[in-house]
């Protein structure tokens, strides 16, 4: 399910890039920082971190005791966020020549 949600997220951004005649998509730093802070705040109450699992040998916890791959979101919240994030969280630019329009077709 997580893969499908992430694919929907990026396809939504790609469709917006095509709508804007852009061929590059880059997340804006303020949007990234805001999301990162939101996730860090939610992780503070996640059982995997609250129970002091930092020294465990876990796929989720790195050598710093952080859980960078762990998203403390419900499936419903991940699904909703992938469909409603502000499209302007990304910067859409055109790197190709105007005579060569983006050729991708996204259904």
Helix-strand layout with pairing:
Blueprint: H1 2-19, E1 24-27, H2 29-43, H3 47-50, H4 75-84, E2 90-93
Antiparallel strand pairs: 1-2
Helix pairs in contact: 1-4
Provide a count of the helices.
4
Helix/strand order? HEHHHE
| Whole-number mean pLDDT | 82
Distance between the termini: 20 Å
Main sheet: which strands, in order across? 1-2
Helix/strand-derived category reads mainly alpha
Describe, in plain words, how this protein is organized in 3D.
With 107 residues, this protein is mainly alpha-helical. Helix content is 44%, strand content 7%. The chain has four helices and two strands, in the order αβαααβ. Strands 1-2 form a two-stranded antiparallel sheet. Helix 1 packs parallel to helix 4. The longest helix has 18 residues. It starts with a helix and ends in a 14-residue tail after the last strand. The model has no long low-confidence stretch (mean pLDDT 82).
Features of this protein?
107 residues; mainly alpha; two-stranded antiparallel sheet; elongated
In short:
With 107 residues, the chain is mainly α.
């Amino acid at each position: 399910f997580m893969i499908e949600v992430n694919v929907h997220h990026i396809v939504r951004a790609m469709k917006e890039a095509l709508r804007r005649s852009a061929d590059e998509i880059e997340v804006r730093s303020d949007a990234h920082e805001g999301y990162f802070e939101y996730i860090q705040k939610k992780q503070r109450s996640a059982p995997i971190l609250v129970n002091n699992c930092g020294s465990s040998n876990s796929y989720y916890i790195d050598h710093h005791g952080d859980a960078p791959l762990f998203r403390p979101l419900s499936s419903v919240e991940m699904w909703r966020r992938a469909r409603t994030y502000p499209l302007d969280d990304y910067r859409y630019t055109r790197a190709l020549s105007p005579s060569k329009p983006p050729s991708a077709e996204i259904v």
